[in-house]
TrEMBL record:
Belongs to the diphosphomevalonate decarboxylase family. GO terms for biological process: isopentenyl diphosphate biosynthetic process, mevalonate pathway. Keywords: ATP-binding, Lipid biosynthesis, Lipid metabolism, Lyase, Nucleotide-binding. One of its GO terms (molecular function) is diphosphomevalonate decarboxylase activity. Residues 8-163 form the Diphosphomevalonate decarboxylase-like N-terminal domain. GO terms for cellular component: cytosol. This is diphosphomevalonate decarboxylase. It is an enzyme of class 4 (lyase). The keyword Cell division does not apply. Its EC number is 4.1.1.33. SUPFAM superfamilies: GHMP Kinase, C-terminal domain, Ribosomal protein S5 domain 2-like.
Amino acid sequence: MFSGKARAYTNIALIKYWGKEDQELIIPMNNSLSLTLDAFYTETQVIFSEEISEDRFYLDNQLQDSKATVKVSRFLDLVRSKAHCNLSAVVQSQNFVPTAAGLASSASGLAALAGAASAALKLDLAPEELSRLARRGSGSACRSIYGGFAEWQKGDSDKTSHAVKIPSAGFENDLSMIFVVVNDSKKDISSRDGMQRTVETSAFYPGWLTSVPQDLAKAKKAIAEKDFVALGEVTEASALKMHGTTLAANPPFTYWSAESLQVMNLVRQIRNNGLACYFTMDAGPNVKILVERKNETALLQALNSHIATQQLVVAHAGPAIKILTEAN
Ligand code: PMV
């Protein structure tokens, strides 16, 4: 019996990943940059054992159906082949997500699975190797190996596509991200399908790709200079451009709901009134607002008269993945 356990935190991209160059290996079309957060994480234990004949996957103590289990099994196959092991496994995952729900993330889930499975089979992977492995489960998971800011460098092969930590002199600790949960039901178009349709059909996709290097450079400069306004501006611009590509896809689609637009307008209004804050969105209608930590309370107060408290979740910078031992 071989057992391993890991805790990984979710991350939100400030410069978005949108589009795959290689579907199978999950090599992206562009570099992306993220902030790992403390508010949502996944703890996963993997036990490889001779006593079972097929993989079993429990999420929040519920045995999952074959569809969910096949995804996990495929990922475990990668780890098994690296370790020359053919044992089946029991996977127990717990998502620690604030009550607002709907924010469970594949990033923390697949990063924790990669960490736990590789620890169980004693693969002893360096962070960049673990990032490569997590990438194969879900692209954004490769950034959750690191705490604070991370850049997923697209590379051009399985070997060269992984995330790295961005030095920041602790700037991430000056930031807060407030999640506005406008809808916690499952999304209609997965990020996988959405990005594929966009790459293949959107007239705006080439524009997206040419603009990413400049946005990435701006974001890295802003982090190096601890320039919140510059980071916020480029974060919001990256999200708007990514979402813009979906409108020109065929068939066109959007992840925005009427409520998302209301929240985006509210953020602009609060900003026009003098409080620096910027929004970003992913493949769903929820809005995340970046603000300086010193202004977190003021922002919550400004949001309070428009948005119910239960819809708001506050997050701060989170740590790197942790391989858990009996002691913790
Ligand atoms: O790796 P996935 O399938 O969770 O895709 C993530 C896509 C976005 O959240 C929209 C952007 C990003 O970089 O996280």
